[in-house]
Amino acid sequence: MKTKLALAGIVALILIISCNRSDEPNSVLLNTGWKFKTGDDPAWATPAFDDRHWGTVDPSQIWEEQGYKGYDGMAWYRLKIPIRSSLKDPNNTKDSLQIMLGKIDDCDQVFLNGELIGENGRTIYSRLKPGNEFTREKGIWNLERRYILALNDPRIHWDNENLIAVRCFDHGGAGGMFGKPFEISMRGLKDHLKFDFASEIFKFSGDSMVTKNLSVINLTGTEPIKGELVIEVFQCDNGIRIYSDRSIVDLPPHLKIEKTATFRKNISVPTILKVSFTEAITRKKITEEVEVPYILTPKSPGAPRINGAKVFGVRPWSPLQYKIAATGQPPLKYLATDLPEGLVINPENGLITGSLKKKGEYIVKLTVENLIGYAERDLKIIVGDLISLTPPMGWNSWNCWGLSVSDKKVRQSADLMKSSGLIDHGWSYINIDDGWEDTHDKNGNILPNYKFPNMPALCSYVHSLGLKIGIYSSPGTKTCGGYEGSLGFEAKDAMNYAGWGIDYLKYDWCSYGNIVPDPSLEQMKKPYKEMKHALRKANRDIHYSLCQYGMGDVWTWGAEVDANSWRTTGDIEDSWESLSGIGFSQAKGSPWSAPGRWNDPDMLVVGWVGWGPSLHYTRLTPSEQYTHITLWSLLAAPLLIGCDLSQLDAFTKSLLTNDEVIAINQDPLGKQAVPISKNDDYEVWVRDLENGSKAVGIFNKTEKSLNVPVEMKDISLNGKWNMHDVWSQVDLGKVRGHFEMKTSPHGARMVTLTK
Ligand code: GAL
Questions:
Q1: Domains of the chain by start residue, with CATH
Q2: I need a surface site. Which of 69, 106, 527, 708 has the fewest CB within 10 A?
Q3: Is 508 a catalytic residue?
């Protein structure tokens, strides 16, 4: 018994070591104790200044979120902190000290004990530079702030209190310090040796083989680094090591070695890959861990299955296009019975087209057959005023290609939407974001630029694949990317879009802010009303997507300007801070979300993204990506894939093709989830579904595995309920009163509860 217990203890320990992320040792954290004041005064750099009357601030959050909404301009942060010489490593006199201040939006000057040590991310090594010139650089808000000082730099007051004063300037939008880390530490092995996990992704082959290529890089310019490298893979549920490789490496300055780990694992079980390096002479060790992607979505069966929206809205007389999304072994044959007059179906590709003249509701029976079997489902077509009765699902060019989008990339994405099979799960829009516009000609027609030689041809190509196409503009003179906007040309633009065959318009505030710098609510609505009328006159069902970052609580009036969706936030990024900050703050819009009127927390950041010509694989961990898709589905958010579809890997595809998850996003009731419990460690969100079931999202916000408790009385559920795991699509038995779900670091689970 004792041995068993001891063994269990060791396994538990391994589990903790292997599946939780660890903190950097030997550092001084700078997360708390900061004072803050808007304005500018050189005296605020000095230790003698008395800041006791200043406000306090959390450096990991922008100042807008801490009582300084809309503030742009100068502001200062001050922190008093002792720096102990025990931080120093007696073995290494060449060490330096680094002060890390997360990121700063937009510009900064950093003073240590009254003297300038850094500006806009660059260390200032000399003591002579006067402190008051301040370069207000643009576009550096997302840059790491790390200032490095030699140990004998007199600006450091060892074993005494030190004042760090940060002078900030914000050009507009979010402002001040944010992100992480905030700490002082010695430069050491961890700064000189880099493990590169990001350049190549985990590759899957067959049902269980995983390969990971990684490299280890010596970042120093002068010193070789020698030691032992260990690569291991652990299973998170029981701590068992399933792979291990040891090697001695001797790395000359600036060089790297490449390593490959190939291992067999159960594809659906969370595992972590851990790499450690122990330096030969000092025995110093650094360790890093990455989560191995785990695939929960089961493979689609060979027998037909009908997916996608169960309800579809169209306006009288508008051209209708509905693609029956279905999986199953090809060839599939598509049928629709009780099709109202005016509509036809193509049995080869499942495309229903035509138009309906009279308002009303029609129930159409869809059937999909193959050699193995058939599937049936009802589709409700509602001819009326409202379109987009379920959240739009598609692809948008921005998060991957940014302004480098072109006709070629759009066609390629449309082809891939079809050939990858995404179309069979309900994905339908191919949206061109900013970067397609040229100028308005003398007749007021908007001309696409050289990258888009023929818009009508592009639209009909996309339609021919069974997909829809979207476009982007701004109510201002210029878009955010500096291209031509729609101001003064709204009616003509809408007519042109409709004439080309556009199905979706994203309308982005951008330079309209120059026309009304401090807009009243009516001024915020005005340009969106203008385009609403223009679109309605164009006689084509164009999904109207507002993008003004949530200003004026747009969710309360989006429907009034006839928007089908409205962005509730600024731009998303592929980081946990951005994802969780946006995702978990969406409850405010819940009451206003309804069929045809969706809150839009911005596009998806899974797969290869990059906002320009060069891409990187999302920096979200696999578990964070589960959180992303789970939360966006519960929020009834538009799902717009933002990645390069030509590099769609098995894991990303599994995230985007789980039909049960998608069905929750597309649930015809159209109710957005609300949080029923929320604390620093976890959140539980619940969405009512059309069939009376509840979809429950369970989110772990910590960096450790967590058993998240759910009290069913908080969802007003009495008695026994059948619980079903949505991601792995398996029944979990009956529950009553209370249950707990084991959830990975930053990860999510999703269940339905059905009476
Ligand atoms: C931003 C918008 C992004 C993208 C970009 C294009 O304002 O939030 O999603 O559309 O403009 O310039």
A1: 27-187 (2.60.120.260), 192-292 (2.60.40.10), 305-383 (2.60.40.10), 393-668 (3.20.20.70), 675-754 (2.60.40.1180)
A2: 69
A3: yes
